[in-house]
Design the sequence.
């Protein structure tokens, strides 16, 4: 059985950073819906243009196109051993669609890590966040600065700030999260899948807690892609 895990949490909780670490540690595919949309934006595809109008307002992109994009990504060969889902599902309809998609392949979600961070800390993190152009590796001016200013440590590409990390849009994204995504916590808790993680600690501490929870989950660190630490 493949290992499908979900990271759930407000924008800025650290889902993307932890997803990168987990994927490298266990050799799983990262399936991050926001990243997929930003790739479409960069390539100026039709989907990118559609998504931009929602992203700029901090609203969710419609479910039909989002579900189609994510299930297509999950169907690629690199996700056959499993995937870390970051930013998807974001509402009940998407969660049910994901369950149906995996059930159709004889698979299921094996765990949901709910990364909790206070509202003040979220605002602080988002306003100082920088991403790399090549692969969207995340940095923070204070908590996790790159070794060379403006350059990604991992792939050397330039860093940029997301348009939707400006304060007005951040407010709306957090509101959308509370209204539409937060109910998923109960959905997964009721299924016995939810693991609550205190996200207000260092990247390394959060990562080792998540790894600790995966001990016995029939997943081995991936020798080829494993690395000594962030
Ligand atoms: P993120 O990078 O996860 O913060 O996502 C950035 C933006 O992409 C969100 O504010 C939404 O506009 C859009 N988006 C990402 N994931 C989803 C999703 N699962 N459903 C709908 N819209 C999404």
Sequence:
């Amino acid at each position: 059985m493949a290992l499908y895990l979900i990271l759930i949490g407000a924008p800025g909780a650290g889902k993307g950073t932890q997803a990168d670490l987990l994927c490298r540690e266990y050799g799983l595919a990262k399936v991050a819906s926001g990243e997929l949309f930003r790739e479409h934006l960069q390539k100026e595809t039709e989907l990118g243009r559609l998504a931009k109008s929602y992203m700029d307002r901090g609203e969710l992109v419609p479910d039909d196109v989002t579900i189609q994009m994510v299930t297509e990504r999950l169907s690629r060969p690199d996700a056959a051993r499993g995937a870390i889902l970051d930013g998807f599902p974001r509402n009940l309809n998407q969660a049910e669609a994901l369950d149906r998609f995996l059930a159709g392949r004889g698979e299921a979600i094996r765990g949901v890590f709910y990364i909790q961070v206070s509202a003040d800390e979220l605002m602080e993190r988002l306003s100082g966040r920088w991403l790399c152009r090549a692969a969207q590796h995340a940095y923070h001016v204070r908590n996790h600065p790159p070794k060379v200013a403006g350059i990604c440590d991992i792939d050397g590409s330039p860093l940029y700030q997301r348009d939707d990390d400006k304060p007005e849009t951040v407010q709306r994204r957090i509101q959308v999260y509370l209204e539409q995504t937060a109910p998923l916590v109960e959905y997964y808790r009721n299924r016995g899948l939810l693991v609550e993680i205190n996200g207000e600690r260092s990247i390394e501490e959060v990562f080792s807690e998540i790894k600790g929870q995966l001990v016995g989950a029939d997943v081995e660190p991936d020798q080829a892609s494993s690395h000594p630490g962030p």
